[in-house]
Amino acid sequence: MNIGIVCYPTFGGSGVVATELGKALAYKGHKVHFISYQQPVRLDLFSENIYYHEVKVSDYPLFDYQPYELVLTSKLVDVVKFEKLDLLHVHYAIPHASAAYMAQHILAKEGITIPFITTLHGTDITLVGKDVSFEPVITFAINESNAVTAVSESLKQDTYKHFKITRDIEVIPNFICFEEYKKIEDSDFLRKSFAPNGEKILVHISNFRPVKRVQDVIRIFDIVRKQIPAKLLLVGDGPERHKIEELCREIQACDCIKFLGKVKDTERILSASDLFILPSESESFGLAALEAMAAKVPVISTNTGGIPEVNLQGFSGYLSNVGDVEDMAKNALSILKDEAVLNQFKQAAYQQAQQFDIHKILPMYEELYRSLIK
Ligand code: GMT
Q1: Is ligand 1 within 6 A of the CB of residue 284?
Q2: At a CB cut-off of 8 Å and minimum separation 6, what does 99 contact?
Q3: 64-117: per-residue pLDDT in tens?
Q4: Ligand 1 within 6 A of 13 CB?
Q5: Does the pLDDT value for residue 211 go beyond 70?
Q6: Smallest Cα–Cα separation from 100: which of 90, 113, 86?
Q7: For ligand 1, what atom is nearest to the CA of residue 305?
Q8: pLDDT at 218 > cutoff 80
Q9: Do 239 and 211 touch, CB atoms closer than 8 A?
Q10: pTM above 0.70, yes or no
Q11: Does residue 239 register a pLDDT over 80?
């Protein structure tokens, strides 16, 4: 098949999922065209089946705000026509679904049929989408998509709750590409460089937005480090970073906490870690938790949104109410204090991650694509 994938190119989960999906489809022999305003961070163009089409936003002085949705629409029309695409798969509803709808209708005037699939990822529904300034367009674009998928059952239910949806939504969960994890040979060197005295390594990865509650990570770590020798790695960057740094200073933990910034190959960091912390306020799936589990790292998380579909209570980790840092710290210590318990959770986390092996999930997307291409 000849597939167009529209996504955000940044470190956000939707862009990562779209990129990994496209790479896997290309590996299976499909032609995949990525359409975005920048080359997605995890995209390498070394496969003969992968193409990248950049959406150029002009900076015409009349516009205080550049009309990205319109240039994206024009690009979609152009790529569908020139590359003879079979379908478009847009990740994150805003503004990709409405741009795809518009492109579909422009092309129809020229006698070209192009179905489009919208994959809902989370904040496009739970935070941004339900904002009144977007809601009518999101509702319309979801209802008019040729197929809609959500990355978890929880997100599907949230979509029905917040929008007037009159159509089916299929759940196709996020996935993990284990091949990337098998490539990591020696994590000992990295582990020793972060924790030279054998301290336990806790890790958090996110885009440091308020919804991730990174301050809770610091508070959990502060309780843990008072009981056992421990270090904390913070991967990513975002609007809350300054506040987080201030909190690290306030609790005098700067020596034990390392900010690693935006890292592409997070699996290397995860492989050197003992415990992943995800105290999010809302999370449709929690791809970062799944990636941790694939690297045999158990997860301490909240029980919000789709996380319970990924992290299993008392098996791959523990789940607590949002904001209950004491409970999360208690759970973290119960895993970290005993080497045998830690090893048991590590194996279970890996076992649970295997439910989301890309080889199980990819055929679901292929089947959906085939059902739409006449
Ligand atoms: O919150 C993020 O990290 C970014 C955001 C996105 O869409 O780029 O992530 C959402 O999509 C991910 C991939 O499907 C999910 O794993 C995340 O849970 C979801 N984030 C939220 O719901 C807050």
Answers
A1: yes
A2: 6, 69, 72, 73, 76, 90
A3: 778 899 999 999 999 999 999 999 999 999 999 999 999 999 999 999 999 999
A4: yes
A5: yes
A6: 90
A7: 22
A8: yes
A9: no
A10: yes
A11: yes
Amino acid at 223: I
Q: Is the CB of 92 under 6 A from ligand 1?
A: yes
Mean pLDDT is lowest, of 123-137, 291-305, 337-351, for 123-137
Residue 185 has pLDDT above 80, yes or no: no
Round to whole Å and give the CA distance between 315 and 301.
13
Please choose from 283, 290, 307 the residue to mutate so as to test ligand 1's pocket, defined by most ligand atoms within 8 A of CB: 283
Residue 123 Cβ inside 6 Å of ligand 1? The answer reads yes
Residue 306 pLDDT more than 80? Answer: yes
